Amino acid sequence: MTQALERLIDHGVGRKPADIVLKGGRFFDLVTGELVASDIAISGNRIVGTCGDYQGLEEIDVAGRIVVPGLIDTHLHIESSLVTPHEFDRCVLPLGITTAICDPHEIANVLGTEGIQFFLDSAMETIMDIRVQLSSCVPATHLETAGADLPVERLVPFRHHPKVIGLAEFMNFPGVVHKDAICLAKLDAFQGGHIDGHAPLLRGNELNGYLAAGIRTDHECTTAEEALEKIRKGMHILVREGSVSKDLQALMPIITERLSPFLALCTDDRNPLDIAEQGHLDHMIRAAIAAGVEPLAIYRAASISAARAFGLSDRGLVAPGWRADLVVVDSLENCKAQLVFSAGRRVTDQLFAQRKPVEPVGLDSVRAGEVKAADFGVPYSEGETSVIGVLPGKIITAHRRYRLPTEGNQTGVDLDRDIIKVAVIERHGINGNHANGFVQGFGLKKGAIASTVGHDSHNICVVGVNEEDMALAANRLGEIKGGFVVVEDGNVLGEIALPVAGLMSLEPYERVRDILHHLRQAAFALGATLEEPFLQLAFLPLPVIPHLKISDRGLVDVDKFALIG
């Protein structure tokens, strides 16, 4: 170690040429907010010199460009990108996202510890630094049938893995406030480490009780008022902009220089089509600056403030001694990555080719039996029928009630009011449960769409105008081992296979992106009006307070239960 330190010091002092020197550009000083003209010297995985002139074994001209710290996504489910961690690495690292703090909550709900181990093994091989939070809510609720159960004793053995930060988003905030024994056991085991929060709309003294358990972060704020209360009470707010949950616009009033030390950015759930068309965290930065946010505030949130919130004390600044995660951009406003360095390594296709592959898991996780059209019937009952109301751009839903038309002794759809059928089918091969209901807001006028991506337990979720197409769509998912399917009049219009736990593709992300584009067009051809019909479908079974939920155990009113979303 002494020789390695001596080498770093010699390179920093300038006694010997550094490994790499970026010459002729400026770097964004996130302490002072200045653009500083300077060489940047890199030795191994560290920055060793700034604010001076350096010689390097390799010298790269970055004249006219700006160097910023690598961007940090502080909360995401890589599974929602529909690709494996290796492909996610190849997809977003070239955009400047050098650290991703993920919760493998989705694959853990299907495969348990096997899914977590798959992510940890993958994180050891990726070029970007993927850090893992241990999934705290598997299953997410007793009202659904998940594929696994992760009590505290199955999580603790992973705690000291080099890629593990702490306990992932603690979704069961009612369980914390009301001192549920299972919740307390997990919280107790991870005291002193990082515990990630998830507390939508939680305010007042109940929020205080939640925070008293040692929870420090939250990505579920949807208003500036809610975020400010949580910041005042010591929380670090993770501003989210995913493919469905879009909170950036609402939270822009808090993205200021004064509050930026208590902010970070995250995507939570973002698919590769949106990444290709818009970007990732770079998209958030562009959008914020275009709306008037100070560049210093948003870049701090994207790097140094994010690193400090999660105890990653080695990154987030362009400064000597810090990890050489660097992004060379054309301008602060455009945030278009020209060059990316991960731990001092220039990101290239050749660098990705050096990674060791990790064997996929969960290739036989879709075990639902065959269903028939008659299985999707909803018997007629007097009075109004509960209907789930989709809220575009949100994962929460509205509880609505309507008198629906009848067909014999069955309750039917109402296309004039955009009310169609929805069903959840248990797919883990545990009990074969099946529940039917109604949903408003998808816009479908014909056909059906179905998915094995159904938060949080990832059972089959299908919406449709007629029972025959719904049955075909659900059965096709079993044949392709999971994924998305679009059906019209007995024909499959489009599909994507997601055989890794029914959540992720084995294809390159470019192929997944192209298939998703075709699938989106197929859904629009059925009349779908949602910007992201498949991710919105994935969140439809999600239990939320105080709204309606469909689980595989039947249609239930969540007002009667202590559940979360």
From TrEMBL:
<dbReference type="InterPro" id="IPR006680">
    <property type="entry name" value="Amidohydro-rel"/>
</dbReference>
<dbReference type="Pfam" id="PF01979">
    <property type="entry name" value="Amidohydro_1"/>
</dbReference>
<dbReference type="GO" id="GO:0000034">
    <property type="term" value="F:adenine deaminase activity"/>
</dbReference>
<dbReference type="InterPro" id="IPR006679">
    <property type="entry name" value="Adenine_deam"/>
</dbReference>
<comment type="similarity">
    <text>Belongs to the metallo-dependent hydrolases superfamily. Adenine deaminase family.</text>
</comment>
<feature type="domain" description="Adenine deaminase C-terminal">
    <location>
        <begin position="395"/>
        <end position="561"/>
    </location>
</feature>
<keyword id="KW-0378">Hydrolase</keyword>
<dbReference type="InterPro" id="IPR011059">
    <property type="entry name" value="Metal-dep_hydrolase_composite"/>
</dbReference>
<keyword id="KW-0464">Manganese</keyword>
<dbReference type="InterPro" id="IPR032466">
    <property type="entry name" value="Metal_Hydrolase"/>
</dbReference>
<dbReference type="InterPro" id="IPR026912">
    <property type="entry name" value="Adenine_deam_C"/>
</dbReference>
<dbReference type="Pfam" id="PF13382">
    <property type="entry name" value="Adenine_deam_C"/>
</dbReference>
<feature type="domain" description="Amidohydrolase-related">
    <location>
        <begin position="66"/>
        <end position="351"/>
    </location>
</feature>
<protein>
    <recommendedName>
        <fullName>Adenine deaminase</fullName>
        <ecNumber>3.5.4.2</ecNumber>
    </recommendedName>
</protein>
